Every structure is written in structure tokens, then in C-alpha cells.
Amino acid sequence: FHQFADTGSRKEHVKITSEPKPGFLERLSETSGGMLMGLVSFLLAFYLLFTNEGRALRTAKSLDEGLSLVVPLFSIHSISQENEGRLVHLAGALSTSKPLFDPSYGLSIQAVKLKRNVEMYQWVEYEDSKEYEEGGEIKKETKYSYNTEWKSEVVNSRNFDREIGHKNPSAMAVESFTAVSPNVQVGSFVLSKGLVDKIDDFKQLSLSHLEDPHADVTRGGDYFYHSDNPRRPEVGDLRVSFFYAGLSGDDPHLGSADKVTVIARQRGDQLVPYHTKSGDVLQILYPGDLSVEEVFQKEHQSNTMKTWALRAAGWLSMFVGISLMTRIFYTLVDWFPVVRDLVNIGLKAFALCVASSLSLLTISVGWLFYRPLWALLLALLSIVPIVVAKSHVPPKKQQ
Q1: Of 211, 239, 268, which marks where a domain is finished?
Q2: Per residue in 273-307, pLDDT tens?
Q3: What is the domain extent for residue 119?
Q4: Which parts of the chain span the membrane according to its record (predicted)?
């Protein structure tokens, strides 16, 4: 049943639902479903950990190969046929053939990318739930609160618990978009699509020097408002802001063109991906004027961070998988409070030790074909969590 208790405000209400406490067979059935999900998570962890090590070592070897082959260009305004097909390094200011326009708002800028961001003033629903037992039933008390906010995506009010008084429009009258220059160069060299995609450091464009484009549009700060009163917007009102990435010409309000450093393969007057013998692809772009050593140092740091992030994700996936697969032991004793708590602690410790050991063992197998000595060391370390766990078991139980 549903029990509604309004707080006196249209923006908040409480709903209480109740259902009979699930029986043993029902809890056992739910646990069985969780075991299947745990098995999937457990197997996924092996795949993630194993492939991650191969990817990390392949990337590191490709970067070392690239560093040994890269050729610095002393001039970005002349194209040397001697460097055809070779991995080259250059740095210079971005340039584009023509500015990007948004005719709807009378705006133009000489940049690689121009993004129009449209937000609509809408109702947003928030939930805060808590469960408790009462009279042999499990009750769930959910507080729904509503607030009006600027959102870039349409919030579907049909999914609200109470849509009456909190209805949003189904679409925006003005759409967001991102315009990309079709021709981006550094000196005489044209950047590939992959390199242009890496130019994504967006900055908000100041609108202080622009006039209101239409009678029904008002400028306020760095926004264009489709609203009768921007200071007191109503649901359905719009505001539009603009962002740019890769300034490619001198601008009196924004300054000089942005400089970038590129490492890629020279093909005629184009900079395209370079395929290494290790099987990776090198097409690198960083903002600023960086040396070859600085670029590859940043790439190695990025590879290291990605490797550890995926290792952590793999370990967590394995820990969750083992926890779900062993949950059935908790379900079998969950009507005994003291025993239940002890079993829960034991299962968590078991999952922690096994996940750590298997993760280290999987990583060592991944290194076996590349660095055998490191693989052996990791395999020995994988035994440590089990030895530590066993040392805490009383001698009688070990016997």
C-alpha cells in the first residue's frame, strides 16, 4: 500500500510502502541470482586483469620505440621529403582556414571547435530512502523533494513519483551542438581527425562584447537567455552559453592562437597515425611547446595511471564477484544475529584475501611472456594474503 504525507509544500512529499518480510526460500532464490552475477563479475576480473598487463607492456614498448625513432622538425613551414613516412615531432600555433559561426546568435570565432551549450530550467526530483522493520513487515520510507535547476538534458517528468505540479517540457526549442573546423594545421602540416579529437580543452567564451541577437533573447553575463525575466526564470526557459577549444587566430579579446606539440607520422603535408612494431598506434598531441622527452614522459605517466586504475577495477570486480558467490552462507544463518555478523566478517575477509591472491597471480601470468622474473616474484607475492589469513587461524582449527 501507499501512504502519502505531504509536508505542506508542493515541492516535497513522503511515500511509505510496506511488504511482507521475505521468507527463507525467497531470500535463497535472490541469493542464487546474486551468485550468477558474482560468477560473471569474477570471470570478467580475470579477463580485465590479464589483458590490461599485455596492453600496458605493449604501450610501454611502443613508446620506447617511438622515442628512439622520432625526428624533430626544425621548421614547420617547409615540408621535407626526407621525413616521408617517419615519426616526426613539431610544435607551433594552431591555424584554421576560416572562422566558425553560429548565425542564430551572431557569433563567430577563429578556433578548432565551437560548442553551443543549451540548458533548460526544469524540475528535478531527488529521493532519500530508508528501510525498517515494523510489525513483521519491511517498510520503506522515501522522501521525494523537487527543485528547479538549469539542466543540459531534458528531464523526463513522467518518471517522477508525482508529476502534478512538476511537469517539464518534452523538448528544447534550441539544441546544443559542436562545430569542428574541417581543416586544422600547424604550420604547413594538416592534422588528422584523431589529432583534432585530442583538442578538447574547452573554455567558456565571454559574451560581454556582444549585443542581444534578437528581441526575445537577453544577454546576462556570459549567457543568452530565452526568458521574460532572467533573474526569475520559469520552467521551460532556456539559457545558452558558448565554449571554444583550440584558438587558431589572434583575437583582440582572447589573445594569441594556442600552441600545441604533435608527434605523428608525416605523409605528404599531413600528420597521421604511426603504427609501431609493437602493435600500438602513436598520434600524440599536447597543448604548449614541449620537447620530445617531455611528451614521452607524459605518455608513460598516463600509461602507468591507466594501468593501475584498471588493476584496481579488476581487483574490485573480483572482490565483488567472490562476495556475491559466497553470500549464500550468510543467507543460511541470517536469522541468528551473532552468528550472522561473524559469518559476514569472515566472508568479507575471505573475499579480500582470495581476490588479492588471484589478482596478483593473474597479473603475474600476464607478465610471464614479457618479464618472467617479475612474473615469478608476483606469483610468490600472491601467496602472502593466504599465508597471513592462515596464520590467524587457531592451531586446533588448522588441525
Answers
A1: 268
A2: 999 998 899 999 999 999 999 999 999 999 999 99
A3: 80-268
A4: 32-50, 308-330, 342-361, 373-393
The C-alpha cell of 42 is what? 569474477
Residues 188 and 329 in one domain: no
Contact call for residues 110 and 251 (beta carbons, < 8 A): yes
CA 326, CA 331: separation in Å to the nearest integer? 9
| 243 and 182 within one domain | yes
Which triple of cell numbers denotes residue 285?
A: 598531441
Q: Is the residue at 242 inside a domain?
A: yes
Weakest mean pLDDT among 112-126, 211-225, 229-243, 258-272: 211-225
| 22 lies in the same domain as 143 | no
- Is 182 found in the same domain as 129? yes
Between CA 330 and CA 377 the distance in angstroms is 35
Confidence of residue 369 (pLDDT cuts 50, 70, 90): low
**Spatial distance between the Cα atoms of 200 and 245, rounded to a whole number of angstroms:** 6
DSSP collapsed to 3 states, the chain:
CEEEEECCCCCEEEEEEEEECCCHHHHHHHHHHHHHHHHHHHHHHHHHHHHHHHHHHHHHHHHHHHHHHCEECCCCCCCCHHHCCCEEEEEEEEEECCCEEECCCCEEECEEEEEEEEEEEEEEEEEEEEEEEECCEEEEEEEEEEEEEEECCCCCHHHCCCCCCCCCCCCCCCCCEEEECCCEEECCEEECHHHHHCCCCCEECCCCCCCCCCCCCEEECCEEEECCCCCCCCCCCEEEEEEEEEECCCECCCECCCEEEEEEEEECCEEECEECCCCCEECEEEECCCCHHHHHHHHHHHHHHHHHHHHHHHHHHHHHHHHHHCHHHHHHCCCCHHHHHHHHHHHHHHHHHHHHHHHHHHHHHHHCCCCHHHHHHHHHHCCHHHHHHHHCCCHHHHC
Q: Round to whole Å and give the CA distance between 366 and 372.
A: 10
